[in-house]
Amino acid sequence: MSNLEIEPAQKNPPTSMKTRRKRIVGLFRYLLIDILIEQAQGRILGKRFVERRSEERNRKRAQRFVATSLELGGVLIKLGQFLSTRFDLLPEVWLNELSRLQDSVLPVDFSLLKPIIEEDFGGPIESLFLEFNPVPLASASLGQVHEARLLDGTRVAVKVRRPGIEVIIEVDLEALNQVINFLQRRTDLGKLADLKGIAHEFEVTLRRELDYIKEAESARRFKTNLKKLKYVYVPEVFSQRSSNRVITTEFIDGYKITNYAAIEAAGLDRHKVARVLANCYLNQALIDGFFHADPHPGNLFVRPGPNGLQVVFIDFGMVGDITSEMRFQIRRLVFAVINRDVEAIIAVFKALGFIRREEDVDKVRLGINYFLDKFMSLNLGQIKALDRRKLFEEISYIFYNTPIYVPSDFSFMGRAFQTLLGLCTGLSPALSFTAEARPFIQRLMTEELGIPTIPPELTGLVRLLGDLPGADAVQEFFKSPTGEQLRQNALDIFTLPIKLNHSLDRLETGRLQVQIQSSEIKSSADRIQKSNERLITAILVGSFLISGVILSTAAAPVWATIFCLLVALLISLRFFRP
Fold first, then answer.
1. What's the pLDDT tens digit per position in 430-462?
2. Which residues, in sequence order, are CB contacts of 35 under 8 Å at separation 6+?
3. pLDDT digits (tens, 9 = 90+) for 512-563
4. Most-buried pick from 101, 402, 488, 530 (CB within 10 A)?
5. Considering the entire predicted model, what is its pTM?
6. How many C-beta neighbours within 10 Å does residue 317 have?
7. Beta strand 246-250 with 232-233: parallel, antiparallel or unpaired?
8. What is the distance, to the nearest Å, from the Cα of residue 252 to the centroid of all Cα atoms in its chain?
9. Distance (Å, rounded) from C-alpha 484 to C-alpha 274?
10. Is 87 left (phi over 0), alpha (psi -120 to 50) or beta?
11. CA-based angle 374:55:391, to the nearest 5?
């Protein structure tokens, strides 16, 4: 029996691994040739001629890819799932077809999985489990999940690796590398992304996903990291029934995160679910440095919890590590994006390897300005309402004409973020990632960026005033458009020192290459810095005075106006000293 015949659910499998390799390479050859023909037709017959037929042509390509993936299984399904959220690379018709690969994998007959369980744990399945349901709960490209009960009655989910999948993966990776090598050498894609690096990252992640011992370790690490988040839960792993090919975890009763009707029927707030999910990933990326790289709907559940609701993560085969240096740069990037600091974004892009040549900076600056102007003021619902086809054309133009190089380290991180974006949009179109990220950045500014905290005397005053009558009215005011603008202006003022320091850094070490060597120049620079500090303090004092005036005309309590005046006075006493 061949290695492919052990998966009886597959229809008409190839008779040899050599044939399988040829079919995979042939699939990509067909796709590439068809795209080249379309481009040639565009040059000869005109762009309009091609555009009229583009959507149908893309649909046929995508259907061919999906059909071949479902027939062959293995790496093609994982690749399709990886690409199914890449709206920056593929048109919507492709994404719609590829989404079928999330739930359409045919199951393996349980008679082929049972020997694996019995071999790994040294006994008949009846002596290992009190109950074991042979009908799968879910079937994926690498493994299959069944419901069971341990001997003590504990309800569990048992995932078993597909038999023979290791050999299939090796053949598929060999074929995929052959395609990648061609694309890297012969097409412009190699100039836009580290294709070999991304393929290597994909291969490492895939091999790791095959090892269920590593998955168990990742699940325990996630459980430790996310224990601090009261709205997030990670199931227990049962080591006595876990091995390299089998992993047994606590069974989770809950609603699939895209089952909006069930979530609402249970009285759970979809907007809160979206906020919990977004905040959880901010924790993973900006604090823990360890993230779930496959947040598709089948791996996330929602259920009632002790604090109202819980978002439950399952399946930790695909995870990603973020080094401390990368984490620091990502924090800087989020901070810069929130404050629309284009030069700071460029500095981070350089540090992370997205910009490789100094002469490319001006083009990158234009691309960044486009995205900031286009999306920063929109929530997820407004972004979703944009003309998808026009948006794809604009993004494609920016992507292919902006010399940003995508390092392989960010391929899975980018995919996870895009999947997360789609989930949050479906849950709550009103969600704003900028608003969710701001509290994290405010907390991290002191740790990483050196922004001073509020003086203790002001903190005490805030707590005191928060208990006074009328505090709710002030909170409501700050939720209004005027109050939100006031808060944004205050944040801009508090972050002004960072922007000034960044400008001074560029003056001293940047493109102007100004070197301060003379003691007289150094003395002058010190005086300028002190003047800047006094200027910033004066702006702070003025801002609180203006806030007091605005509050006095907004039907807010009198004490709120007094509070602003007291803050202005305390800042003056604290900073304007002889």
1. 888 888 888 777 776 655 544 444 444 444 444
2. 61
3. 434 444 444 455 555 555 555 555 566 666 666 666 666 565 556 665 666 6
4. 101
5. 0.70
6. 24
7. unpaired
8. 24
9. 21
10. alpha
11. 0
